[in-house]
Amino acid sequence: MSFFADVLVGHEAAWADGAAADGPVGASGMGQRVAAMSERSSSRLQLHDLHLAQGRRTVLEHVDGDIKPGAITALIGANGAGKSTLIQAIMGELRPMSGKVVCTVDNARRAWLPQQLALDLTFPMSVEELVMTGSWPSHGALKGYCAAHYRKGREIMARLGISHLAHRPLGELSGGQRQRALIGRTLMQEAELLLLDEPFANVDSDTVDILIRILRQMADDGVTIIIVLHDMDHLRRLADEVLMLSAGHGRWVAPSALNQQHAPAQVVPFTLGGRHAGTA
Q: Are the C-beta atoms of 162 and 183 separated by less than 8 Å?
């Protein structure tokens, strides 16, 4: 899977329109976010009775959802539950057997951050060059950058704490440094819809804290975020809504229902199944 196809170009042609503070959020902060979300009434992404299959095997059926601006939606489920399949459908890479995905966000404002294992780290590109490619969907890949582009890129790298890595090749970065650079690209792109697949896997705790803060700020600015998560602490700190995939179906679950299943101090992977499902 090529680096350009999956990160730099950002799947612009593949997406089908027809197919805060870091740490735990208190009741006051959550109430403010919910109120802000309720004011943003227009949906950016809708899932209508999706029936998805891989080959001849049905993976998910009757999946519905109405995802609005400013919401961080956690996508959770056991391995093989259909998380990647649903992401493929949202991206327009997998045609539903029935139902449809409706997205109102312009292609130039959609971003997809895959797992780091999907990246080709042999591609000769520096951190600054990667961040700057975020301007490609709207500015074009063959045009030169202006002073405003470079100024914005430097501001983004400073915000992510990677200014000192600007000229370092991607292949020489740690997992956490690389993930910060990839998030920097989405900030440069000014994405309005962002999908992330396990962005906290194999990264250091400082990077986790920085990325959670940045993602929360992006959501507060109105960005719609869908994120695959496997850690209860990350869900507690980020999720406004949760779509849990289990037994071929999707269930919308209140984050508080899942939080009640685990002690606040625990940092553990999800254990999903009938008795761990919480309440819809």
A: no
The Cα–Cα gap between 237 and 260 comes to: 14
Tokens standing for 11? 């799947």
Which one-letter amino acid corresponds to residue 27?
Answer: A
| Full pLDDT tens readout for the chain, 280 residues | 333 333 333 333 334 444 433 333 333 444 444 444 444 457 889 999 999 999 989 999 999 999 988 999 999 999 999 998 999 898 888 999 999 999 998 888 888 887 765 567 778 899 999 999 988 776 666 677 888 899 999 999 999 999 999 999 998 999 999 999 999 999 999 989 999 989 998 899 999 999 999 999 999 999 999 999 989 999 999 999 999 999 999 999 988 888 666 544 343 344 333 333 333 3
Structure tokens at 202: 């194999």
pTM flag (> 0.85): no
224-228/193-197 β-pairing = parallel
What is the Cα–Cα distance from 123 to 173, expressed in whole angstroms?
13
Residue with tokens 């997809």: 112
